[in-house]
C-alpha cells in the first residue's frame, strides 16, 4: 500500500542520485528495503567473519553473524577455515552459544544432534531411529556451509555460489589495504579477549557511510572528544591538501598523509615514538604513499558493513539487527611482530578512543540514532538528504588505483557507496553487477 | 579539571601506575573473594556512607569532587565478558585482554577533561543519572588501613525523550584510609552484559 506523498520508487537507484548527491531518507528505516538488503546486499556480498588469528589451531572456533544469520567459524583438522550456519537443521535451534573456544564438535542442546568442525552431521541420540527411517541420509542434514576466502589474515565468507571471487570483490582496494594489513613481515593479528560489542538504535548504513568517507563530522562531532589529547596541539586538523577519497567497488577510504594523525588522539607519546621508529622500514616495504596512510587521519569501509580506522586499528562490523538497530562488533588489529608493550598500548589506546567507553566513539552514536529516527517522520521523509560536498575533482595520478578524488572533506566515497548499494539492490543477479577491473597484481586470496 | 584555554592540561603528567603495577593490581582484584575477616561495623558504616556520597557526586556530575576520592595509584578496570563454555580452560578475565575500562588516575582525568570542555554535544542537554549501591560487604586486608569492599550497583541513565539505559553489576574495591576519609585504590567493575545493550558507557562506576 502506498502511503507517501511522493510515490515509493520501484527501483533502489531512484532513491539515490550519486551524480548530484542526494539520498532518499526512506532507505534508513523502511522495513521492506531492509529485507531487500538482507537478500541482495548481505547475501550476495563477501562479509568479514573473522581474523585468522582468532582460529589459529584446529578446533578453534568463533561465532559471528552474516547479515542476520548466525554462523560458526572453525579451523578444521586440515587447517582450512570453515564457515557454516549456527542453526540445527532438525528444529532450528542454535547449536553453539559460546562466542569463542575450542571444540571437536557442536552439539545442539535440543535433541543432541552433533556436528563436526566442517559442519557435517556426525551423530545423534538413538541413531537407529533414523537408520530405520526410509530416505533419511546423514549427509543431507549438515550445517549449511559458506564459501570462505582470506586476504592477508582477514577471513570473508559468502553463501552466494554465484558471487565472483574475493579477489575480484576487493579488487584494487587490496593495494590500499596493505597499508594496514601488510606493514610488517609476519602479518597481523587481532588482540586477544574477544569482540567489544554494543547496540545502537540506528540503521547500519549510517556508521558504514560515516567510515567510508565522512571525516567532515570529526570537525564538529569530535571537538569535545579530541580536546583532551589534541587541544594542546591545536585541535582536530583536516584539510583537503594532500588528502584523498578512494573508492573501489563501493569500498572506500578517506585519508591524508599524516602517518600518525589518528594515532595522536590516543594521547600516548610512546606509541607515536614507536610508529616513528618503524617509518623507514615500512616505507621500504610499502613505499612512501601507503606508509603515510598507516596511522593517518582516515577511515575506511569495506562494502557493505566492515570498517576500520588506521592509527587506532579498530576493525569493526556493523551487524544489521533490523532496519533501525545495529550492533557494533569491534577488534584491534596489530602486526604480529609488534613488541608486547606496544600492542598493549594499542589495546588501551583503541579502547579509550573507539569502544563503547571511548572518548571519540561516545560522540557518534546519538547522531546515528537520531538521524535514523527523525528520517521516518512523515513530512521529514519527503526531503532528500544532502550529499553535495564535492570540492575536489578526480585525481589523475596514475599511481593510485580506483576512483580517486582529491581531498578527504568530500561526499565522493559516500555517493559511490550508495551507487554500489543501489546497483546490488536492483540487480536480478550477479551477472548484472559490475566490478572494476584489477590493475594491481596482489598476492591472491586463498579460497 | 576545566582549564583556561592558554593553559591546557597535559594528562600524561597526571598520576598513573605503570603496566606491570596495573597487572599486579588486576590480579589482586581477581583474587578478592570476600573470604577475609569482616571489618568492624563502624568501618562498614563508613564505607556505606562513602558509597552513598560517591553515588550522589556522580549523579550530580560533580566529577572533580569524585576525582578527589581516587588514590594516585588507582587501577580502575571493567574487563570484557565473553560467553564461553564452562569447560573452556582459558582464564575468564585477563588484564591483557580487551576491556571497557582499563584506567589509571591520569586516564580518568582525561575523561573528565573531555566532559569539562563544553564541546560534548551528546551530553548537552545533560543526561540524568541515578546510581543505587547495595549489598555492601567490607573485609579487612593484610595491609593496615586498606579494606576489601564488595557492592552491587544499578546505574540508570535517561536523556532526551526515550533514551535510557539501566546497567546493573558488581564492584570489588580496595579502599584506603586517608586521614579522616577513604580513597579508592582499586576498582573492578563486573558488568554482566556480553553485548552492551546500550550505545555507550558515558558514565563512571
Please give a quick description of this structure:
The complex is a heterodimer of chains A (about 450) and B (about 200). Helix content of chain A is about 25%, strand content about 20%.
Keywords, separated by commas or semicolons:
heterodimer; A: 447 residues; Naphthalene 1,2-dioxygenase Alpha Subunit, Chain A, domain 1; nine-stranded antiparallel beta sheet; 22 strands; B: 205 residues; alpha+beta; six-stranded mixed beta sheet; 33% strand
Characterise the protein shown here:
The complex is a heterodimer of chains A (447) and B (205). By secondary structure, chain A is α+β, with helices and mostly antiparallel strands. Chain A folds into two domains: 47-149, 3-layer Sandwich (Rieske Iron-sulfur Protein), CATH 2.102.10; 172-432, Alpha-Beta Complex (Naphthalene 1,2-dioxygenase Alpha Subunit, Chain A, domain 1), CATH 3.90.380.10. Chain A is 25% helix and 22% strand. Chain A is built from eleven helices and 22 strands. Chain A has helices at 31-42, 127-131, 166-170, 173-181, 205-213, 223-230, 269-286, 288-291, 340-353, 361-374, 412-426, and strands at residues 16-17, 22-23, 47-51, 60-66, 69-75, 81-85, 100-102, 106-107, 114-115, 121-123, 147-151, 154-158, 188-190, 196-200, 243-248, 251-256, 298-302, 306-309, 314-320, 326-335, 385-386, 403-406. In chain A, strands 13, 14, 15, 16, 17, 18, 19, 20 and 22 form a nine-stranded antiparallel sheet that branches. In chain A, strand 4 (60-66) and strand 5 form a beta hairpin. The longest helix of chain A is centred in the middle third of the chain and has 18 residues, at 269-286. Chain A is globular, with a radius of gyration of 22 Å. The model of chain A has no long low-confidence stretch (mean pLDDT 96). Chain B is an alpha+beta fold. Chain B has one domain: Nuclear Transport Factor 2, Chain: A (Roll). Chain B has four helices and six strands; from the N terminus they run H-H-H-E-E-H-E-E-E-E. Chain B has helices at 19-30, 41-59, 63-67, 105-115; strands at 70-79, 99-103, 128-140, 146-159, 163-178, 181-190. Chain B has a six-stranded mixed sheet. In chain B, strand 4 (146-159) and strand 5 form a beta hairpin. The model of chain B has no long low-confidence stretch (mean pLDDT 96). Chains A and B meet through strand 7, strand 14, helix 6, strand 20 and helix 9 of A and strand 2 and helix 4 of B.
